[in-house]
Design a protein that fits this description.
Elements lengths: L1 E4 L12 E6 L2 E6 L5 E6 L2 E4 L5 E5 L2 E7 L3 E7 L2 E13 L2 E13 L4 E6 L12 E3 L4 E2 L3 E4 L15 E5 L4 E2 L3 E3 L12 E2 L6 E5 L7 E2 L13 E5 L1
Parallel strand pairs: 1-9, 15-21
Antiparallel strand pairs: 2-7, 3-4, 3-8, 4-5, 6-7, 8-11, 9-10, 10-14, 11-12, 12-13, 15-17, 16-18, 19-20, 19-21
Length: 230
């Protein structure tokens, strides 16, 4: 059965420890610098615990916490498919400093990948590379700094208030709001006692440019529209 592991996440916290979160149906094996197996999770069960770091499982998600030294983590695919891996270094106090990501990494059932988890943060990207069972290197797709990175909040669409000056007459509406495209859907009318004809709205009390519903207002052209009454 083909399985896609888009929800594969490895979260590394280096402060100075490293935590790993693996949300994928794989078996996980952790080795120390001497190559000794010091922790494992198989079939979603912790089969070998360690006094050096924590291992736990919740559903199909595996957790490795408090990795303080250089470790090699090996994970063996339990199905065919693809895998995404995201590594996040923390500089301290749970502050994310860097993110390294691998996308659409192919998985073949029972084949494995290994990955070194460096002891220090800000190691070269290549130190995080995945190594296949055939000794081929899989490089990261993304390596970006998260320091001082803040979410980009889009500015709300701008609209403009148009003030209608009756210029001696009375506007049926003294102000209107443009749409986000800077135009008005409609224009008010105006009246004045006596023998006057309403000719429309203009940018100046006399002369100027006539305003229509096709006029696009900008920041420099929205404060006053004068009435032409003759």
């Amino acid at each position: 059965m083909e399985t896609t592991f888009k929800d594969e996440v490895w979260k590394l916290l280096v402060w100075p420890t490293t935590n790993a979160k693996i949300a994928c149906p794989v078996d996980v094996f952790v080795y120390n610098q001497n190559g000794d197996l010091c922790g494992s999770i198989e079939n979603d069960v912790v089969t070998q615990s360690s006094n050096e770091f924590g291992l736990s499982v919740k559903g199909e998600t595996k957790y490795i916490t408090d990795l303080e030294d250089l470790y090699t983590i090996k994970y063996v695919a339990t199905d065919n498919g693809t895998m995404d891996i995201t590594l996040t270094e923390f500089s301290g106090c749970e502050t994310p400093a860097r993110q390294i990501a691998f996308y659409n990494v192919p998985l073949v059932k029972e084949q494995s990948y290994t990955q070194n988890i460096p002891e220090a943060i800000q190691s070269e990207t290549e130190e995080y590379s995945l190594i296949t069972s055939g000794n081929k290197e899989v490089s990261a797709d993304i390596d970006q700094s998260l320091i001082n990175l803040r979410p980009i909040v889009p500015s709300p669409p701008e609209t403009y208030t148009i003030i209608f000056n009756g210029n001696g007459g009375t506007a049926s509406q003294t102000s209107m709001e443009t749409g986000t495209d800077g135009t008005l859907d409609t224009l008010p009318t105006a009246s004045r006692d006596g023998n006057y004809r309403f000719d429309g709205w203009f940018t100046e009390p006399t002369g100027g440019v006539q305003i229509t519903t096709s006029t696009v207002f900008t920041k420099g052209n929205h404060s006053l529209c004068s009435l032409g009454l003759h």
